[in-house]
Amino acid sequence: MLYDALTEAGPFERFWDLRREFDRLFDEALPANGRSARGTFAPALEAEEGDDGLTLHMEVPGVAPDKLNVSIDGRVLSIEGERSAQRNDNSKLHRSERVFGKFSRSLRLPETYDTDAVEAKHQNGVLTLHVPKSVAAKPRAVRIEAQ
Predict the structure, then answer these.
(1) What is the rounded distance in angstroms from the CA atom of residue 41 to the CA atom of residue 97?
(2) Which long-range contacts (CB under 8 A, 24 or more apart) does 40-47 make?
(3) Going edge to edge, which strands form the sheet with 101-108?
(4) What percentage of the chain's residues is helix, strand, coil (to nearest 5)?
(5) CB-CB contact of 104 with 80 (8 Å)
(6) Which domain CATH number covers 124?
(7) Residue 41's domain spans which residues?
(8) CA-CA distance, 45 to 128, in Å (whole number)?
(9) Would you say 56 and 43 are in contact if contact means Cβ atoms under 8 Å apart?
């Protein structure tokens, strides 16, 4: 590469080359377009932690709420579902860029979350789960007694 020829190779240049190669391999194996490496439906997941707990957002457009299953086994939260193709049998398909099929995601939750109080909502193609922090894990003020 021309860039490599113009730059001075430092002691860590080989490590950066190795990192770039790993990044390239992962980008090819795990594309970020709603498809898994096998070309099946793999919904995007976002997790955010607030003071009151963990909120998960999963993009599930075209998946009806009755095709979703959320379960908890111990500390493992699992989300399963299926997006089915809805095609007219009397028509001829010329091109399809949509992906369909079953999917499954599992997340191990830390002890600081109350797995007995998980709430789930489905709106506008987004599944939202809220896992509150356990009472013991929530920040609290400690009163100081004057003596």
Answers:
(1) 11
(2) 40/99, 40/100, 40/101, 40/102, 40/103, 41/83, 41/99, 41/100, 41/101, 41/102, 41/103, 42/103, 43/81, 43/103, 43/105, 45/105, 47/107
(3) 68-73, 76-83, 101-108
(4) 20, 35, 45
(5) yes
(6) 2.60.40.790
(7) 34-85+99-137
(8) 10
(9) no
**What is the domain count for the chain?**
1
- Strand segments, DSSP code E, in the chain are 45-49, 53-59, 68-73, 76-83, 101-108, 119-123, 126-132
pLDDT digits (tens, 9 = 90+) for 110-129: 888 999 999 999 999 999 99
Report yes or no on 103 lying in a domain.
Answer: yes
User: Encoding tokens for residue 121?
Assistant: 């909502």
Look at residue 27 and tell me if it is in a domain. Answer: no
Q: Is residue 25 part of a domain?
A: no
Per mean pLDDT, which range of 2-6, 40-44, 125-129 is the poorest? 2-6
State CA 38 to chain mean position distance: 17
4-23: burial string, b at 16+ Cβ within 10 Å, e else: eeeeeeeeeeeeeeeeeeee
Residue 133 — φ and ψ, nearest 5°?
A: -70, 150
Within-domain flag for 17: no
